[in-house]
Structure formats: C-alpha cells, structure tokens
Design a protein that fits this description.
The structure is a single chain. This protein is mainly alpha-helical. Among the domains are: 6-71, no CATH class; 195-252, Methane Monooxygenase Hydroxylase, Chain G, domain 1 (Up-down Bundle), CATH 1.20.58. The chain is built from 15 helices and no strands. The longest helix is centred in the C-terminal third of the chain and has 21 residues, at 231-251. The radius of gyration is 23 Å and the shape is flat. The mean pLDDT is 85.
Length: 252
C-alpha cells in the first residue's frame, strides 16, 4: 500500500470500501476485492476505469477502455468464459469465440481444431471459419494445408479479395517459396490491411529478398505512420514496427 497522509488514508479506505460494496452487489469476480484492498488506492482506480465508468458512460470508447483494462489484469478471462460457453452449448458461434480467444493466447493447435470441427454442414464454406483455420495452420507452420482453404475462399470474390485473406495468402506463398505470388499478395495487403501488420510483413518480405533500399523505405513509412497513431493503438503498432525493423537489421 502507498504511504499516504492520515486524512488521505481515511479517504482511500472509504473509497475502497465503497468499491468493494459495488463488487459484491454487482456480483463481480471476487478477485476485484483483493485488487482494490491490497493496492489502495491504485486498485480502486483501476476498478473504476475498468468496470464502473463503462457502465456509467455506456459509450463505445469507454467500453473499449474497460475491456482493455480487464484484459490486462486477467488475459485468460475471455478464454475461460468462451470455454465454459462451449461446455454449456457447443454451437459453432461458441466454438469460434473460443478459437479466437485461443488464438489470442497463442494456442494455435486448439484454434485449428475448433475451426476444423466447425467446418461442416451448413458451415463447410463459411469464410470466417476458412480464414481462421488457415491462419492457425500458418502459425503452426503448415502452409501447404492452409493454401487449399485460402484458394477456396478465393472462389468467392468478396471473401477472397479482403486484406485479411490476401495477407494470409501472401504468408503462405512466402512459406512455400512462391515469391512472385507472395509479393503480389503482400504488397496489396500492405496498402489495404488495417493497422500495421500488413506493411510490417511486406517490409520483412522485402528485407528477406535482399531488397534493402525498398525495405528501409517501407520502414520509414511505418515510422511516419506510427508518429501519427493514437496512443491507444501505439503499443501494438510499435510491436509490428519492431518486427519489421528486426528483419531489416538482419538483412543489412
């Protein structure tokens, strides 16, 4: 606990007690009680931002801030809740939710199995499931198995020409040594993919092809974009910038 003057200590204690009452009455997870009481007053502030403000404001931005705070404190929470939902009702929607949560935790083998189990019957050609399984196979270093799924997606113009599909296709072509096709797909994804992953992966591709000047130009473009990125998204953007910079450094 922080060392506070006595009057402030009293206020902090009252603040914490009020938040603990809210935890109990709103039937929140009991770990919030420990966070609030053991880390006064910071724990209470975190609870206020993560739980109470989104409830009061109800806006999309407040909800995102609250979700981010809860995710930082308990990164396994969505996975646990999704797994319970599958146990209660193993629907395709619940399995996809669990697959997404598993992917966020790097559990790509589990995600691949969940997508594969869901690609049956009415959902055999579902674009979300095909792309999800293909991405899981890419992460498992099984690009030859991912390619037919992405080619199947390509049979549907709307699903086969999205930035997410083209990025996955470019990664598969690159892994299979089909560099000309990889460049076409990755270059398009770099210009259209939301966020920084598309341009970062294209930069890394150029670096690994020995095209250092082009790779450095793309890295400079990433830096320009990063300087204008909202602080809320900067951490993820910086991670992709570092990914691209590492590839450029190795090639130099």
């Amino acid at each position: 606990m922080f060392s506070l003057p006595l009057p402030l200590l009293g206020l902090s204690l009252l603040f914490s007690i009020a938040l603990c009452v809210h935890v109990v009455r709103s039937q929140r997870e009991m770990y919030w009680l420990w966070i609030i009481l053991l880390f006064q007053p910071v724990g209470g502030v975190v609870y206020l931002v993560a739980v109470i403000l989104p409830e009061l404001l109800g806006g999309r931005t407040a909800q995102k801030v609250g979700a981010a705070a809860r995710q930082a404190l308990d990164p396994q929470r969505e996975y646990r809740e999704a797994a319970k939902a599958v146990d209660d009702a193993p629907t395709v929607a619940n399995r996809v939710r669990l697959a997404v949560a598993a992917t966020e935790l790097g559990k790509h083998a589990e995600a691949e199995r969940l997508y594969a189990d869901s690609l049956t019957g009415l959902y055999a050609d579902d674009p979300q499931l095909l792309l999800g399984r293909a991405n899981a196979l890419i992460e498992l270093d099984r690009p030859a198995e991912a390619l037919p799924l992405l080619e199947k997606l390509g049979e549907t113009p709307t699903a086969g020409r999205t930035p997410h599909t083209l990025l996955a296709l470019g990664r598969v072509y690159q892994a299979l040594g089909r560099d000309e096709q990889a460049e076409t797909a990755l270059s398009w994804a770099a210009d259209h993919y939301p966020g920084f992953e598309g341009i970062a992966r294209y930069t890394a591709f150029l670096a690994r092809q020995g095209r250092k000047d082009e790779a450095q130009a793309k890295l400079a473009e990433i830096d320009r974009r990063l300087s204008k990125t909202h602080a809320h998204f900067r951490r993820e953007a910086k991670a992709w910038r570092d990914f691209a910079a590492a590839a450029v450094a190795v090639a130099s």
